Amino acid sequence: MTFDFLLRLLAAFACGVVIGLERQMRQRTAGLRTITLVACGSCLFVTLGVLTGNGATGVTQIAAYVVSGVGFLGGGVIMRDKGSIQGINTAATLWCSAAVGVLCGSGHFGPAAAGTGVVLLTNTVLREVSRAINTAPVSAADLVRQYTLTVVCREADEIHVRAVLSNAMSSAPLSFQSLTSRDYEDTPQRIEVTATLKLHPKDQSRLELLASRLSMEKGVSSVSWSGLEAEPTPE
Known about the structure:
Layout: H1 2-25, H2 32-51, H3 55-75, E1 79-81, E2 84-86, H4 88-105, H5 109-134, E3 143-154, H6 158-171, E4 175-183, E5 190-199, H7 204-215, E6 220-227, E7 231-232
Antiparallel strand pairs: 1-2, 3-5, 3-6, 3-7, 4-5
Helix pairs in contact: 1-2, 1-4, 1-5, 2-3, 2-4, 3-4, 4-5
């Protein structure tokens, strides 16, 4: 029994090291030690069910608790940074490492080795495939980006500027989300008109043309625009 226990633990350790090395080389949040500990810990929990003689039912119940526990651990490596989410792949790798550990703890060494191989292929080969897809022309991607167009003009020209922006909705066309006006930094006789719109990145030239046209309008002192990160178009 002791030899069998050590064999399972060493198998989980080896699989965790193999997966963790790839993560460590990429300087991920969960690296060599974290991945290895998750795999070994999952193995130990499942082996506990085997050692106590609870049978397949007990092992399955313990494995279910391992999955939920690793879910909380994975949530700790997911971060949101400037509208983008980081760490999802690392969290998924932790989850898969726990599955590999469970398989080792259950004595299924072949499936555990196969799982380790699949995780490595996913994090290496499919990584390059993802990069190749991401470098495809943006016009082929189903994306939408939010832009903010800001125009500073004389108070007397506010109505004209708003009319130009409103007409652009039908002539370009541009998908405006909002159009607001406010006093410009306590400067008398100056108004800041802000338009928020959503476009496919390939149509950004339409926004640039609109900004150029507005900059030549009489009474307009400044025109600026900015765009957030592109996001997938809602299905």
